[in-house]
Amino acid sequence: MGMAAAGDDGATGCSAAMASSGEEPRSGSPGRAGNGSGPEPALDTAEDFEVLEEEEEEEEDLSEMPPLEDVSRPPAPPPEERGGREAAEDPQEWLDVLGSGLLKKKTLVPGRGADTRPRKGQDVTVRLKAALEDGSVVEENPALTFTLGDCDVVQALDLCVQLLEMGETALIVSDAKYCYGAQGRSPDIPPNAALTLEVELLEARDAPDLELLSGKEKVELANRKRERGNFFYQQADYVLAINSYDIALKIISSSSKVDFSPGEEAELLDVKVKCLNNLAASQLKLDHYEAALKSCNLVLEHQPGNIKALFRKGKVLAQQGEFREAISILKAALKLEPSNKTIHAELSKLVKKHADQRNVETEMYRKMLGNPSATGAPGKCKDKLRWSIPWKWLFGATAIALGGVALSVVIAARN
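The structure assignment produced for this chain is given below.
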């Protein structure tokens, strides 16, 4: 797997989701994330039911997943500690990539010119070595490949590789914010750990044409992006998680010049449903209720009995105050999975909220209408009102009847 993404609020150079900052970490290594096997991380540890869509055949805990390729960065070691690199580094100046001093790059071996720099969207291959501040190496990868700008790797790497020339070797010193943040990466990268990355740009090539990918290739590519989104979700970086799920969905929905087998079509639909479910979970975390409702509805168009989509749709409706409809949705989910304790708990909570809401509304209407109490003079008024209403109705009914007779006479005369 490759290098993961930034800490709790790090900036990033990934696609639309990154204008300024991002966040989070868990397992993986500094290079590309998402190649690991095992179940997706839980969406909400407080709810056993809310689990990220995962491969059906695997049910191990996230802690069992192979670590994402990560790069820890120690602050630039003093020249005396860098030994043989001292001569190469000293003449060079550090480039403050973001202007904040938290992400710096220094050229160790010059490249072939600025016109050889890679572009966003290209697949790049780099040689990577990552170390902590104490010098301990946490990752070495002689040929790490990832899509530049897609957040396939930690933000420090994604941002700085765009500045490398072909053949250039650079030293990157990054604050934890642009690597694994406050969570770190168990077991090798502690929380809030700065990383030092030594990177050499080996190759940059255009990404494959999605229209020419086989069904199997599309499934594999979309799954890598989905798994990366799961990584970001686990880190509580819901913006970047949404970005990765969106990329996966675009891959799945892209037009194709290749015919897919029924089995491949089914696999693509399965990945699409997983992405939409996880997208809805991320949108819920950001209180983007309309977007989450749309994602749930898209799942239910394909799979009306999808438990996760029904559950999350119920939660969205509840957040919007639509308790009656939310309760109906959750009851439907419970019929499909009667033993699900999380749905039971959520349903019980909503029924109580709905009852409380109705009591509040009843009291409010009573006050608005000036509803009298059941004691004293008001009771007499109520009795009086009960007798007066029928007389009014009788008078109105008589008037209507007379009007109808008159109209009948006029019509008869005309005929």
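Interim note for the steering committee: The longest helix spans residues 377-414. The radius of gyration is 31 Å.
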